[in-house]
Amino acid sequence: MLKVYGDYKSGNCYKIKLMLHLLGREYQWVAMDILAGDTETAEFLAKNPNGKIPVLELEDGTCLWESNAILNYLADGSEFLPTEPRLRTQVLQWQFFEQYSHEPYVAVARFIQFYLNMPAERMGEYKACQIRGNKALRVMETQLQATPYLVGEQYSIADIALYAYTHVAHEGGFDLSGYPGIQAWLKRVAAHPQHVTMQG
Fold first, then answer.
1. What CATH number does the domain located at 85-190 have?
2. Which of 14, 16, 51, 53 is deepest in the core (most CB within 10 A)?
3. What is residue 60's predicted lDDT score, i.e. its pLDDT?
4. Which residues is 57 bridged to in the sheet?
5. C-alpha–C-alpha distance, residues 77 and 72, integer Å
6. pTM (2 decimals)?
7. Range(s) within the chain of domains with CATH label 3.40.30.10
8. How do residues 46-95 score in pLDDT, each as one tens digit?
9. 93 within 8 A of 151, measured Cβ to Cβ
10. Residue 10 and residue 53 in contact, taking contact as beta carbons nearer than 8 Å
11. Which helix (DSSP H) or strand (DSSP E) does residue 54 occupy?
């Protein structure tokens, strides 16, 4: 059986949980506590030398890491990953955007507020995250005003990648009331019959 090493509160780990539920795949969840140092043990570093979650351990013991890479592996051959080259590239485009322009600000602001309880020494970083995170949200809003999902008409792993931290952006101080396209998209994603909540 597949094993997922993760934290239920982590958006990057939630991507994998959501993908597996959408596909109806069975898996075992191995709970990890980042703040307690679980990802720094020799045992875990043997699975991911970068010391980060999530990690997907396959039946043969192979370990895959980096959340968006795992999404591509799991979605291969399914409706959640287009086969047409232009559409598949647009999926990758949004995944790269998520890791470079969205997650470093939306997720980090959430980490500072939700995990660390707003320590004074990180307030400057938090405020910078608000500016850059809202820039990323505006990029998403532009697309979602034009199409129901990030890559046209079809729900894909591009949506999973960006839903993970966007749907809890308020926990990082982001106000989504000014983003009606994003709000409607969040509802569409959550309405999928196989949808599962972050900690549900």
1. 1.20.1050.10
2. 16
3. 97
4. 3, 63
5. 10
6. 0.96
7. 2-75
8. 999 999 999 999 999 999 999 999 999 999 999 999 999 999 999 999 99
9. no
10. yes
11. none
